[in-house]
Amino acid sequence: MSNSTAEAMPQPSGPLAGLTVFDLTRVLAGPTCVQMLADLGANVIKIERPGSGDDTRSFVPPEMPGTGQSAYFVGANRNKRSLTLDIATSEGQRIAHDLIGRCDILVENFKVGTLSRYGLGYEQLAPIHPSLIYCSITGFGQTGPYAARPGYDSLIQAMGGIMSLTGAPDGEPMKVGVPVADLFAGLYGAIGVLAALRHREATGEGQQVDIGMLDTHVAWLANQGMNYLATGTNPPRLGNQHPNIVPYQVFATADGHIVLSIGNDASFARFCNRFGLDHLIENSNFATNAARVANRTLVTETLAAVLSRHSSAWWLEALEAIKIGCGPINTLDQVFTDPHVIARNNLVDLTDQSGNPITLVANPVRLSATPVDYRLPPPILGEHTDEVLTDMLGLSATEIAALRRDKIV
User: Is 182 labeled as catalytic in the residue annotation?
Assistant: First the structure.
């Protein structure tokens, strides 16, 4: 599908305005990285396979109402222009090289070595475009014994250890309910690109940013990873409990569940004073966090009996009044109607190509001087092919028609 260039494209206003990204990513990890750059003002050219495009275009149901577009695709592809291009052909590769010469950043998430077959590997482009920042996001990175393997979110969650830590103690290992391995890889990729931009600003030199999903997964094991390194013992699955703090977990109330998060001894004493549990402060099994961790079952059973006496609403009001960490366990309809979520503008409304409203989750980065902007809705496959080839390469309508006839675009 082509798009008329009669109406000027909205100009970016974010801190990356003036930079152009050649986007060879699909599914989630790569598109997450690129959408962050796009939201921050970069001009993104999303390269898609003619006829099919990004794999997630077919990840339906559900579709966004009135658009026919996959909700999965829409969530990671705003502020991008879609150019269909067959990089498996020599003419497609020539066009890709011409476009890359006009770009600052290339982001890709093909398997290691794939793009080199098309003359688009880092080792091939770096001598020609020494200032190019080339970000590669793969399952296992560019080196190591697993480098050639494909990477999938659930696979990385399993291999990276998080599934051994998630789930009920007597249940099976459990993955996180959203693709966190993909998301973290994408965000670390964006951080790497920003660091490489700073280096290029100082030296004029580009470089490759090598992001392995397993690497980023190991990095965000955080306190649990350090717990293992400190003790040499595999942390157990604790369900909704915290490995280092007690009580910091889900409790049943008279009509549901809440999260109770008591992060220090002073807060625990305040909790006990307010709810007639002063005797616990004098009990050596409860007096300090270290003691409460050592006596986790006793503490949990004691407090569970207390929390079950009142409703969730009663507890949340009483706990908030004395500044004890607590919260409801919201379903997504409750999340998106939460007054704080609304006040923080965590949803953004755009208009799609047909004039239909489309609601997206907003970018959480808040910049006071150069805020993110929302210029373009997620593109229809090939929507901007004519526009990009005309504006960036100066191709005529006749030349573009010939490329389309030959199925290059």
Answer: yes
